[in-house]
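[Automated response] Your request has been received and processed.

Submitted sequence:
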Amino acid sequence: MLATPPLPHNDSASTEAVHGEGEVLPEVAADPAPEAAEAPPDDYLRLQRRLLLATLIVSAIAVLITALAFNLHIAGSLLVGALGGLLYLRLLARSVGKLGNGAKKVGKTQLLVPVVLVLASARLPELELLPALLGFLLYKPALILQVLLDS
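Generated structure:
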C-alpha cells in the first residue's frame, strides 16, 4: 500500500475541508446575494415595458386605421381584441418572470384570454369574431417590430 505524504499545515482552514485520506476539497461558498436571484433583472423589466408599449402603439394605429377605413363597430371589436392581446402578453410576461423563482414551467392562465374572447364574440352580437381575433394577434407585429429595432 502506498503511503500518502503528510498534508502541509495551512492556516486558511476556513476555506478548505479535509475529506478522507489526504484529499483536500474546497468548501462551497454560500450564495453571496440571494436577494439578487429573487428580483428579475432590470433588462427583462425594460423589455417587458417596451413590448407592452410597442403593442399598445401598434394596436392604437390599427384601431385608428380600421375606424377610418371601415366603421366604428369593427374598430371597437378590433380594440377589444387588442386589449385582450395586451392582457395575454402581460400574463405571459408575469408567468415567464416567475420561472426563476421556483416555478418549473410557464403557467396556463394566459390561455384563457383567447378562449374568453371567442366566447364573448359568440355571445355578444356587437362583437365581431374576426376583427377581435385580429386585434388579439396585434402583439405579434409588435414583437417583430421590437426584434427589428433591437438588431
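Summary generated for your ticket: The two ends are 64 Å apart (CA to CA). The chain is about 60% helix and 5% strand.
If you did not submit this request, please reply to this message.
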